[in-house]
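Retry 2 of 3 after timeout on previous attempt. Resubmitting structure tokens to design endpoint.
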């Protein structure tokens, strides 16, 4: 699978708009959308992108963030790098 490493920056705007226990509207999913990822579906330790079937593991900082956010604990902005399939990036989709 051809991948590209991207940096996902979860900022205050994502935290404020994010919904607990929502795979498509949590702060990390919102930040992934802003980073150009197509249709991210974030789960507790991994995520799917672009409607695909490949489950991609999240780094430890992201897993801890999800746990804290979903359980109503305070969270701070966070950033992390992940490898995304090129086909799941907006900039790579053929127009």
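Retry 2 succeeded. Sequence:
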């Amino acid at each position: 699978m051809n991948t590209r490493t991207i940096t996902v920056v979860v900022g205050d705007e994502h935290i404020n708009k994010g919904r607990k226990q929502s795979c498509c509207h949590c702060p990390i999913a919102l930040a992934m959308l802003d980073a150009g990822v197509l249709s991210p579906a974030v789960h507790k330790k991994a995520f799917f992108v672009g409607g695909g079937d490949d489950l991609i593991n999240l780094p430890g900082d992201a897993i801890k963030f999800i746990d804290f956010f979903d359980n109503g604990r305070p969270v701070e902005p966070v950033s992390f790098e992940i490898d995304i399939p090129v086909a799941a990036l907006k900039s790579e989709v053929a127009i």
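Attempt log closed. Strands lie at 3-10, 41-42, 46-48, 56-57, 78-85.
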